[in-house]
Amino acid sequence: SSHCGPSSFCREAFTRRVQLPVPSSSQLRKMPKSKRNKVITLTKTKKQPKEKKDTLIEEIRTSCEKFSRLYLVSIENERNTFMQTVRQKLRPSRLICAKNKVMQLALGTTPSTECQDGVHQIANRITGPCALLFSDKSPSEVQSLFAEYRPHDFARAGATATETVVLPKGEDTLAKLPHSIEAHLRQLGMPTQLINGKIHLLGEHTVCKEGKELTSDAAQVLKLMDVKQAQFTLEVEAHWERGGKFVDCEDMED
């Protein structure tokens, strides 16, 4: 019969059928190379952290030679788009953001390691979110530019609420939002219900309280409600001038 019993012949035939022939060395040479073993030319790879760091240090030192003044700037609610705008407004000045340790290393924290006379005083004041502004602009010019540009943005989770936001119950509160988002609002902890295609807020809802930290849910709700609680600000903390003159921000006048 065509049905094969558990005879040794049948097992042998089966094993023979699935055994793959081992390619000869000449065949192997003709086979296409596996993509996995692809050699990538180093010119295409991303810069290594060490290279990047060295480039930044070089850039900071060069800028220190090129421009007559250096400002230590503290940043609040940093956003890339806002930083780009500031950079454009400050041209040809250079605004450099890097890891604090890298900026300190570039400037030098002692009189023996500093890259310019007296600049170690700036390096020693680098702390928190900050940047280095290399410029020929006067302190008053820089400060007025910073005072003019203070855009608002949506606060992120972890930020401190600047005001208490309470949403009143009813169908008008969330009228601007598409009905498809209702389930998501419930996930964010809001007492909502879809009635006749409209989102109803079934009870008063406190999104955040002034002075308290924003949760991830609260930050999302504020964004949906178009409430911007974060303000991007830049403040001059200290200022160095070529020749070693150093000014702390308390007595900063032109």
Provide the descriptors you would attach to this structure in a database record:
about 35% helix; alpha+beta; about 250 residues; about 20% strand; single chain; flat; 11 strands; two-stranded antiparallel sheet; 5-stranded antiparallel beta sheet
Would you mind describing this structure in some detail?
It is a single chain. The protein has 254 residues and is α+β, with helices and mostly antiparallel strands. Helix content is 33%, strand content 19%. The chain is built from 9 helices and 11 strands. The chain has helices spanning 8-18, 25-30, 49-66, 80-90, 100-107, 120-123, 139-148, 182-187, 216-224; strands spanning 69-76, 94-96, 130-135, 152-153, 165-167, 192-195, 198-201, 205-208, 230-231, 233-241, 245-248. It has a 5-stranded antiparallel beta sheet, sandwiched between helices. Strands 4-9 form a two-stranded antiparallel sheet. Helix 3 packs across helix 5 (100-107). The longest helix is centred in the N-terminal third of the chain and has 18 residues, at 49-66. The protein is flat. The relative contact order is 0.15. The mean pLDDT is 87.
Topology:
Elements: H1 8-18, H2 25-30, H3 49-66, E1 69-76, H4 80-90, E2 94-96, H5 100-107, H6 120-123, E3 130-135, H7 139-148, E4 152-153, E5 165-167, H8 182-187, E6 192-195, E7 198-201, E8 205-208, H9 216-224, E9 230-231, E10 233-241, E11 245-248
Antiparallel strand pairs: 1-3, 1-10, 2-3, 4-9, 5-8, 6-7, 10-11
